[in-house]
Predict the structure.
Amino acid sequence: MRKGLIIGANLLLTPSGLFADDHQFNAPSGLVFDPPEVIFEPVGVLATQAKRLRLRFVAPQISDTEKFGFEKLEADFEYLCTVSGLKIAKRSAPKLEQIIVSISSDPIALGETVPSVAQYFDAFSVVDGTCIWDGI
């Protein structure tokens, strides 16, 4: 369990970043995800004014890209957008237009590429309270 300061809407501020809720997500692939790192954009705006939300999940198991390729994780993206991203939008960020979900095998800084770290991304528009795949 992460320890830190609760800052409303079930968001937890820890020394390593902002995390949503404090429970795990059982995804369709069979993976269990800890709460994600949460980044509201544009950077510097309050959540209530954010247009984009990044959910950054870590799953060490995906380092085995033969077993956990994008096809295996594909349904997880929409699931995580819905159960985590839309929950945050409803509670804290009513102006969200887009949710970007990323899953990596190890935590890395936003925007970094590390050859030994598997990373997958997907993007969704928020339309009428649902996640609509953006087709990336």
Remarks:
- The chain has one domain: 5-133.
- The chain has a mean pLDDT of 85.
- The helical segments are 70-92.
